[in-house]
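Protein details
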Amino acid sequence: MLGKVTVIAFHRAKPGKEDALRQALLALCGPTRKEQGCLNYDLHVSADDPSLLVFHENWTTKADLDNHLASPHIDAFRGVARELLAEPPNITLWGEAKA
């Protein structure tokens, strides 16, 4: 994939872990937004289901995204993910449609 990469990443909390997951994901925002190539890294909570959270991210390049995925803060989140997530994250990559 060449050029800007958009990521949509859904995370579902285990019952009773909604707030803990939200806090853990929010903690990723600060360091991630400082990373090279991060255009935006925004966390959203479903208006209908507080257990469902989604990141909307844009990266300058796929290499920048790959570096993010290898970062210490993402690795630290992986260490607590099993406690918080009801299922594996659903992460999709998108490229901008051009005429």
